[in-house]
Amino acid sequence: MKKIKSAAELNALQEELNARLDPNKPCIAICCGTGCMAHGTRNLVERFQQELADRQLTEKISLRRTGCHGFCERGPMVVLHPQKIFYQRIKVDDVPEIIDKTILGEEIIDRLLYRDPVTKEKVVHEYEVPFYKKQMRLVFGMNGMIEPTRIEDYLAIGGYGALAKVLTQGDPQAVIDDISAAGLRGRGGGGFPTGRKWNATRKAEGSPKYVICNADEGDPGAYMDRSLLEGNPHSVLEGMIIGAYAIGSSHGYIYVRNEYPLAVENITLAIDKAREMGLLGQDILGSGFDFDIVINRGGGAFVCGESSALFASIEGRAGEPRAKYVHATDKGLYDKPTCLNNVETWANVPLIINKGAQWYAGIGTEHSKGTKIFSLVGKINNTGLVEVPMGITLREIVFEIGGGIPKGRKFKAVQTGGPSGGCIPEAHLDIPVDFDELSKLGTMMGSGGMIVMDERNCMVDVAKYFLKFLEEESCGKCTPCREGIYQMRKILDRITNGEGKLEDLDTLEWMGQAIKDGSLCALGGSAPNPVLTTLRYFRSEYEAHIIDKKCPAGVCKALITYGIDPDKCTGCHACARVCPTGAATGEKKEVHQIDQEKCIKCGACYEACKFDAITIV
Amino acid sequence: MQEKIAHIIGKYHHDKGFLVPILQDVQKEFNYLPKEALTTVGALLQVPLSRIYEIATFYRAFSLTPRGKHQMSLCVGTACHVRGAPIIQDGIERVLGVKAGQTTADLEFTFETVNCLGACALGPILVVDGEYQGQMTLSKANKLLKKLGKKVATDEED
Ligand SMILES: Cc1cc2nc3c(=O)[nH]c(=O)nc-3n(C[C@H](O)[C@H](O)[C@H](O)COP(=O)(O)O)c2cc1C
Ligand code: SF4
Ligand code: FES
Description:
By secondary structure, chain A is an alpha/beta fold. Chain B has a five-stranded mixed beta sheet with strand order 2-3-1-4-5, covered by helices on one side.
């Protein structure tokens, strides 16, 4: 494609591409996000291509390989346009039938439809699926409409129009005022007002100025940034270019985790394409504004998501944070004024410019505007990425969008904010989700991980899990974080081994406070949160470990024993077959037993038993 | 080796700022970071060896020892943890006789844990030689190990 030299040319191209979109032409949109790829979507795509070719239909029916649709639980999935018929859990051999029956014959294939686990009813169209119904997919919804590797697709639905608008108006300060008026707050964790950050960078002395996209996504359990970069990379680029223009920067970086190969691939391609078309590089759209972006792949360290550590890493050093008495907006990367924003923050920018600050400010709560994408994972029926307006309640997210807890088990807690956040119990499920309400509960919004736990998850174990994670990820620069997290983890090790004392709980509380007060960066500053919130809301579970020497959830190995319920055991011998130590034994068709001397509590029998006869107490 | 490394460094225009991605590419080429490779990188970029070791030991992605023929990475991110990743980790460690982060003595297997692969909906996830395997269970992991030549008790009747 040739270079676009002005906003008018861009507009003409958008219209031309849009006119080529035939809304009535059948289109098979296959989700090719990482989740669906892991489900085996690659073979599905090939089969569709082959079957369409065999029937000489490649001209009549288009095939679109889109980014993540969000409903990863149900992959592989396709949406058949124009009717928006939604088929899920598709197998390669379903492909000919889908083409012949549904696309050519307008017949619905019942077994591929989604069945609502609550009402037990089958749902035909994507927009009727309860998982999507309550969502507000402003940022994420475009994923299903485009092929991320085709810039034409993004242009056809109006992409880069916000950039053209901003460049035509020619008033950088007005852009910042718009972002401020919209009330956009950073989606990377802290919720810092984006307009204020841009303004500070714009006003700061020094050049060059840098604009950076934080795609380190360190929270283990959150993957919305990845899905945006993979599924709609141009929206992130467009946001960054607009931001750079507003701030007065011509150098951009994207710092992306190396563990995300597809995201790296798609964003690299997107940058090349944008540059080729004159949307990046020199004299963007003939406006005289220059801006280009370099990709930097992270080395897999959680702390590198922290601003000053991220700068160090881009500079080619070990990612250690530094004290924050100087702001990054004054002295960031290479000690120059730097504006660092999260992937999702950037992706919100074109939306605000296109639809207006007023419109955007109308969504959400008083101090948290717009939508937020969460990764709803763990013990939940509808796992996936959900985009909801700020202010929706946790209960709506977990029970309506998420469809509740699998296997009829009981909800116990939902964890937000990743390793810096906390666990929220049932009693607080009706709070509106926004930055401030979550902080009040001792947790935080974080980057958007939302991990649901049921009665079979031990809260002490979860607290220990996060401490272990942070212990490994602490850069080691300052003592409270390095030694304090280690000591707290040792205490939790003792408690989960049945060697805890009640005084330990007080020690955890004051030590947690000390670590929060004494740490240099927010990693240490928020590290005790998972322990402190579980102590606050699930103290009795800690006490059960200490006083009764029991793990009520049946997780902590030292405190549980495996047994066999004689009433349920059918003597199928499955446990004995899988037991690695020969502890589970018995004659076929007779009740089996477990030799406690030999049992190493590996859980193999529990998993293998189809009759629920293995007990854990 | 010299030539390959020079080529990688050339791709990054000899820019010291790209030390981390350069080492990533070197590791990809040699499957770990051999000592000679690090000295070569140091000499070509004119960066002291101590700085290179600082980087190579700080970031989780780097390995200073050779890796096994088969690479197994288990996700132990939060979503996978609450869905039972620890039980699978114990199982794999028991069968291979190594802890996470180690390679078996016969250089057949390297077992690692990772924090979130961004496919939490399918957790627990085990990546075997680059293939994502979702909804992992102890018995599925055992079957995979058996297929790769390990002796394990599985629920298949012999
Ligand atoms: C230990 C630590 C890890 C962080 N990891 C991330 C991350 O993975 N992604 C991210 O966007 N922000 C992360 N942050 C927050 C960033 O420091 C920074 O506040 C954010 O990128 C700013 O962007 P925003 O204003 O758009 O949220 C992390 C912070 C800390 C202290
Ligand atoms: S608080 Fe922890 S991670 Fe942050 S600088 Fe100190 S030691 Fe490093
Ligand atoms: S926690 Fe395992 S893939 Fe995210």
